[in-house]
Structure formats: C-alpha cells, structure tokens
What we know:
Elements: E1 2-4, E2 7-9, E3 13-15, H1 24-32, E4 38-39, E5 43-44, H2 45-50, E6 70-75, H3 82-92, E7 96-101, H4 121-134, E8 141-146, H5 153-168, E9 173-177, H6 191-200, E10 206-209, H7 215-225, E11 229-232, H8 242-250, H9 261-278, H10 281-295, H11 302-310, H12 315-325
Parallel strand pairs: 3-11, 4-6, 5-6, 6-7, 7-8, 8-9, 9-10, 10-11
Antiparallel strand pairs: 1-2
Helix pairs in contact: 1-9, 3-4, 4-5, 7-8, 9-10, 10-11
Amino acid sequence: MLCIGTIELDLPVVQAAMSGYSDWPMRAIARQLGAPYSICEVMIDSFVSSLKDRAKTRHHLLVTDNDHPVGAQLMGAEPSEFPPAAKKLVEAGFDVIDINFGCPAKKASGRCRGGFHLGQPSVAIEILQRVRDAVPSATPVTVKMRRGLDDTPQSRDNFFRIIESAFELGIAAVTVHGRTVEQKYVGPSRWDFLKEVRQLFPQRTLLGSGDLFTAADCVRMLRETGVDGVTAARGSIGNPWIFAQAAALLRGEPLPQPPRVYAQRDVICEHFRLAEQILPSDQVSKQLRKFCIHYSAWHPAAEAVRAAFIAVKNAADWHEVIACHYAIDQPGQFPADPGNSGQPLAVSCAEPVS
C-alpha cells in the first residue's frame, strides 16, 4: 500500500509526469491497464493562471471521473505565481498538487525554475510553503526533486535542507530522482542515494525515479532502496502494461507474457480515439506517432513497424499502418532495448506546457 496523504494506492508503481506525453489520453490508458495514480504533464504556473475556458486549451485542465486519483505538476520561477495556479488546478478537479524541482532544462530568460531551484533553497522552501498554504488541507502537496544541482557538498546540503523543510511543512510525499540537474539524462541514476534518503527519513513517504524501463526495474528499485513507491516515466511510454506486470511480480508471480498483436492494436486504437477527443484533427496523428514508435517495440516485426510509424504524416497513414501490421494476431515480444526502442529519448520538462 502506497499512501499520498489520505490517498491510498494498492500498487506502489505510478505514472510519472512527462511533458509532451502524460496528457489525458496517456493517463487514461495507463489507468485502464493498472496504474493506480497518474500525474499530468508539467505546466507552467503563469500559464495555468491565465487559462480560459476555451476549446483549444480546455484539455489541459481535463479531469474525468475515471481519472481519480490524479495529480497536477507545477513549475515556475516566482513563488508568488504558484498559489493561484495551484488553487485553479484543485478547482479543476486534480487530487494532488506536485511541485517540480527536477527539470534540468534552463529557462531562456535565465530565471531559476524546475531543478535549478535546488540551488536556492530559501526560494524552493518558500514555494512549498505558499502552495501548502494556498490549497485545502485535505489536498496533498508533493514535490519532485533531483539529488542536487551537481555532486558538490553544497548541492548535497541544499537537497537535505529542502527535503527536511518539505516534510516539516506538511508535504505529503517526495519523489527523488537519482541524477543531478547537471547530468540531465546522461549516466546512471544513483539508486544508492535513494536508499540513503530512505534511511534518513524512515517514517516519510518517498518515491524513487530514474532508470525504470521495465516492470522488473520498478520492483528492483523498491526492494533495493526501500522507497515506498516508484514513478514510471520513460519506461511507460508505449508500455502501459508496465503496471500490471509490476503488480504480478510484486505478488510473486512470473512476469506476464507480452501482449499479443491484437491486444496491442486495441490499446493503440483506444489511445488514438481518446486523443481525437481533445486534440485538433491535424494534431492527433502527430501526437500518436511518438507513442507508436514505442508501442512498436512490442510487435514481433518491431523494426518494420517502427519504420512505418516514423513515416506517418497524417491520420490516413496511421490507419494504414494499423491495417497492414496489426491485421493478424501473433504473440508479442518484449522490447529488445527497453527504454528507447533503438532511439535515444530524453523525456523531460524541456518543453513544459506554457
């Protein structure tokens, strides 16, 4: 059991926030296939505050009955801009407000935001305080952090000052990514750091992040570090089966067989259908294309299917790929290269919704 404030989750593997990916269709698919909780793609605080009820942007605040519990992730530079955005997200129906202190992308203006707040702990703590004070006491506030700006002693001190203050302020849970901001997405995530944080805060709710590409990775992080839960990010793109697979492994059962081609087709088509509900028609195939490149890794003819999805330029092309490659049911396969399907991928908040 994983608890985030008063929210109880029956699986300690949840859907992470990923800019450009964890929109409502992705979250809906993940929930249908076993994710107990999901977080929407990171949004800039000022963008949220300025949102109007318009058809073009309404989907950013979309929360459906089947979405709960669902979190909204905020990122920004100025502490004063966080509270109104957090209030608006709660009013929209989000159950948890998650603050992003993990993004390694610099803002063009040079102002600190995301992971760069780890270098100014007083500001980071003020943001946490303001958001906690702004939303109802029953609404959990959480924070995503990297282990520091870099590996200097000062960065380490800043990390522990912020996380200790977060728990003192009533932050319900902290997700720790085992890389530094300086690393971005290069090099291994230090799971030993997660274990250290767990040992220092044994009674607090901690989630781990970093290098979770398979269900086995998720289970291994839980067991090796002692964290309460893990957040599946890149490993869940085109792989909504990761949650049910992790649940089976945690029950002591064998890893389920990969989904058959028809099962893959059904999920992909449902993903497309959901995207049609919120996106302009000319954007649906573009959005699904990046997901399908990863879905294709499960197909027995993965390389050919991946190439076909890469060539998709419109909805007609997309439907042709489905008709051509998913017409015969066959056993699926586990991706040969978990996490990137043969192509480097740096899913981050490099392009947050703003």
